[in-house]
Each structure stands twice: as C-alpha cells, then as structure tokens.
Amino acid sequence: MSTLDQRTSQSAACAAGQGAVGAPILLPVPHYAQTLDFTCGPSALMMVMKALDPTVEMSRALEMQLWREATTIFMGAGHGGSGAFGLAIAAHRRGFDAEVTVNHKGVLLADRARSDVKREVMRLVQETDLREARERGIPVAYGRLGADDLERKAREGWLPIVLVSTFYIHGDHVPHWVVVTGLDAEAVTLNDPWVDVAGGKTAADMSNLRVPRKDFDGMARYGKARERAAVLVRRRPAP
User: Which of 20, 178, 180, 216 could lock 160 by a disulfide, CB 3.0 to 4.6 Å apart?
Assistant: First the structure.
C-alpha cells in the first residue's frame, strides 16, 4: 500500500465537519498525465483551462509551449520546472483570470538550484515574470492559503493549482504542482499529473485523490524553508 493509500484510509477518523466551510465541492476537472519529469506545472494548468473552457485541447504541444513560457530555467538537476508567476501569466495570456499567493518575497525554490549562477538566473526570470504579472494586473499576495481558503476561492469560481511535496503521494521529496478538484469536511481532492506507469498506475488512479484535511497543510509546502505557492485560475468575466 502506498503512503497515500495508507493515509487516505485514515481519513474516516477525521471529525465530521472539521475545517468545512460549506457543502462538499467536487469540480469536474479532466486529467492530463505529464509526459516529462519537469512539466507538472503546464500539465496542471492544462487541466484547469480545459475544465474552465471545454474548447481547450490538451496536447503535448501545448504542454511544451506552456513549459517554455513558465519555466524557471534551473531547478535541481536537469531542466527547470515552472514558476508560480509564469503559470499565472500563461493562463492570463489565454484569456483567463489568475491570482498568485506565495509565502515569501524571495525566489521560489531557489534552494533547489545547485550554484549561485543558477540561482541568479532564477532570480532574473522571476523578477521578469513578476513585473509582467503586475503589468497585466494579476494580483499577487504574500501569505498562505489553507484548505478553508481554497474552498472559499473554489466557491467563487477559481480552480487552484497548488505547490506540494511529492513525499506524501509518491514517497520522495520533489516540488510538484497539482490541481485541487474538490473539498469536503474530511478531505481535499486532487488531480496529480504524475502517473507512475512503471509502477502500475493509471490516470484514473491519480484523479480525484483524497488527502485528509489534517494532512493537506503539511503536504502543501516544500523543503526546509516550507515554501508555499498557489496559482488560482478562473474564467474571465465578460466585459
């Protein structure tokens, strides 16, 4: 049994009504499996855009394009992942509203870079993205969004993309973007774009994963610095 399966089986022990703000929410978000190790952010964004606009075609070509727009260039070994501001800008360019919440004003996940040179590149990329986000009028907040906050935003029409550690689901320590697809009194429900095909998993296994509310806060942060980030996306209201 995986770490996620073990913890999900304990969700019934959560007190009824714990952390709930209203009736349960389950958002119809289609699943997309990332095709490369570093494209969880674009894959999560595609799921959200498709849920909000059924005409969006989820494809590997779009996955790569979104990654090109949102990448941090460096992050650990290999290619960089996607930054919160870059994902928000990519959504906004395609006609969606976006908001970003991060818990500090420094460079997100800079500790993952393995040299000062790479950290400086990440700083320049984030600085450029932050400037464009502000020019586009994308709200940027500094703090944290807990499960109750995400529930309130979901009721307002926002779909959350949240930074998590893969330890809870996959047993390793990697920063990862997932989509919040629902909330109820006991759990936060997620679509995880990483599908461990070699381990026998399918897209269905990684759709609407239930994470007990009592565990979500610890899952939705990364590293010793406990970095947090969320990108909220919704349909842009008609003028």
Answer: 180
